[in-house]
């Protein structure tokens, strides 16, 4: 199960967010992921490890390659969680809509 | 602005931005002046800024002037509650509010610096609230607190279903 604490701390790094953005386009190897960054492959591998243990990416073995892809359950968990937060805030704003609808006829001071 | 864009604008958005920001947008079917007042007038704030069902705000201090303080106290009517304190930094009537706030749970959370804009949008107002937290970890914790409140709302609904 994806853990939200580790997922959000994994997301709090611009390189890791860029890696996820790249993986949103499809599977990629470590070498392909390292290319756009001024980074060694071991450095990229360390970021991938963080993303993997946070449940945000998955890797499969293909000979000596271990291509990465987005892990849907991890990404979905973050989305579901932001949705819940949106829901709580939206409740406030629905009440505000009602308050505004009521105060509308007032003459501006 | 065409109709499709308006329909999109009427929904709330909540996004994280960079490492330390949270940006919330929402369209309201009222003039910026009315939406601004609802964000600064204590009597109006007490009617909507309540979070999950079942919560009220028995104490609301909002001194809407630069340097003025704010204090919101929430209660769930069952002995549970928490409060928020803050200071207004800049106010441009009906257009922009800059303030800083912190929750007391009961330990104070790190300061959340918030700029709220009210812009004319079709017949109504587009509100954009941009929060800046001191660091990524603080933002994570703040969002986690929001999650707990969202879950609390679900539990309250569940309770009313069971009671019914």
Structural summary, described in words:
Chain A is mainly alpha-helical. Chain A has five helices and two strands, in the order ααααββα. Chain A has helices spanning 4-11, 14-23, 30-34, 41-53, 72-103, and strands at residues 57-59, 68-70. Chain A has a two-stranded antiparallel ribbon with strand order 1-2. Chain A is elongated, with a radius of gyration of 21 Å. Chain B is of the alpha+beta class and 164 residues long. Chain B contains four helices and eight strands; from the N terminus they run H-E-E-H-H-E-E-E-E-E-E-H. Chain B has helices spanning 3-9, 32-40, 42-48, 136-163, and strands at 13-17, 21-28, 56-62, 69-75, 81-92, 96-104, 112-121, 124-132. In chain B, strands 1-2-8-7-6-5-4-3 form an eight-stranded antiparallel beta sheet. In chain B, helix 2 crosses helix 3 (42-48).
Keywords summarizing the entry:
heterodimer, A: 109 residues, mainly alpha, two-stranded antiparallel ribbon, 62% helix, 6% strand, B: 164 residues, alpha+beta, 8-stranded antiparallel beta sheet, 8 strands, 31% helix, globular, disordered N terminus, disordered C terminus
How would you concisely characterize the structure shown here?
With 109 residues, chain A is mostly helical. In chain A, 62% of the residues lie in helices and 6% in strands. The longest helix of chain A is centred in the last third of the chain and has 32 residues, at 72-103.
